[in-house]
Design goal:
ABC transporter domain-containing protein, alpha/beta, about 300 residues, 4-stranded antiparallel sheet, ABC_transporter-like_CS, globular, ATP binding, nucleotide-binding, 6-stranded mixed sheet, binds adenosine-5'-triphosphate, transport
Length: about 300
């Protein structure tokens, strides 16, 4: 269910609402669904990348889609964020239908895609300004909105530098702040810590935790087990299918009969295959190769 005052239009973020942050708190008490997929399916020719996915992410929840490379996580994110049309089933974000109400969905959702999406030739401030205009934030509010986003990302001192000079951690923080500028209710992060060193990874994760405490709903795709362990609930997916869904403790109890196990063991028991980093695709391998001085320096 959505707050009526925010429904129906591209966001007109008010200064008090921007950059993440003080506002919010669940719009609906009692864990209403922020994201609802019903039989969600996406085919690419003969390949079914997402195969009848049915799940709900509750308001204010930190929810992980956990699965190996190629499981269909990014495809799911692309459908939820209206980038890709489902070939079957339905999906709703904050009560809006991704197919019939894409504009409303985009107003309610903030996204950090797996692929870096900053313009390296622009400064941090310019990157945010472009996005503010694209998001329909009123001209009179752009300056304050961008200032707050930069401060939130702890990049105010670097606002005038081109992104080319930024480390992987800084880029990710900037992308996260950008995703929040229009005051979305739901944040979707597709492998947000991919290619980051442990310190940058931890920092980003702390920011996600803070946002969650502020009432934001967060859906995170990952194949890093410690990140999934930190989530309220985890959906384990493989080959486009949902295998199990529950809190980490529930999954371990249900699948293995003991809570002392790891999610890796749960995955292994479900699929007979480990959830390995070695299965990383070429991009992950390239990113690993280019890691330097602790952070990604591409
Ligand atoms: N545009 C596309 N055209 C054809 N096949 C695609 C396309 N996008 C994804 N796929 C295929 O769909 C399957 C699911 O891919 P997807 O990227 O959603 O998985 P993932 O779980 O996000 O993995 P990764 O972490 O590697 O991105 C893979 O087999 C992939 O090759």
């Amino acid at each position: 269910m959505q707050d009526e005052s925010r429904a129906g239009a591209l966001p007109a973020a008010e200064p008090a609402e921007v950059a993440g942050l003080e506002r919010r708190g669940p719009a609906v008490a009692g864990g209403a669904a922020s994201v609802r997929c019903q039989g969600l399916t996406r085919r690419f020719g003969d390949l079914t990348a997402v195969d009848g996915l049915t799940l709900e992410v509750r308001e204010g929840e930190l929810f992980a889609l956990l699965g190996p490379n190629g499981a269909g996580k990014s495809t799911t994110v692309h459908m939820l964020t209206t980038v890709l049309r489902p070939t079957g089933g339905t999906a709703h974000v904050a009560g809006f239908d991704v197919l019939r109400q894409p504009r409303e969905v985009r107003a309610q959702i903030g996204v950090v895609f797996q692929e870096p999406a900053l313009d390296e030739r622009l400064t941090a401030r310019e990157n945010l300004e472009v996005h503010a205009h694209l998001q329909g934030i009123r001209r009179a509010w752009v300056r304050e909105t961008v200032d707050r986003a930069l401060a939130w990302a702890e990049l105010a001192a670097r606002a005038g530098q081109t992104v080319r000079a930024f480390s992987g951690g800084m880029r990710r923080r900037l992308e996260l702040a950008r995703a929040l500028m229009h005051g979305p209710r739901v944040l979707v992060l597709d492998e947000p810590t991919l290619g980051l060193d442990p310190q940058a990874r931890r920092r980003l994760w702390e920011q996600v935790e803070t946002l969650r405490r502020d009432g934001l709903t967060a859906l995170v795709t990952t194949h890093y087990l410690p990140e999934a362990e930190a989530c309220d609930r985890v959906a384990i997916v493989d080959r486009g299918r949902l295998l199990e869904l529950g809190t980490p403790a529930e999954l371990k109890r249900r699948v293995l009969g003991r809570e002392g196990a790891t999610l890796e063991e749960v995955f292994l028991a479900l699929t007979g295959a480990p959830l390995r980093d070695e299965e990383a695709g070429p991009r992950e391998q390239i990113l690993s190769f280019h890691r330097k001085g602790g952070e990604l320096t591409r």
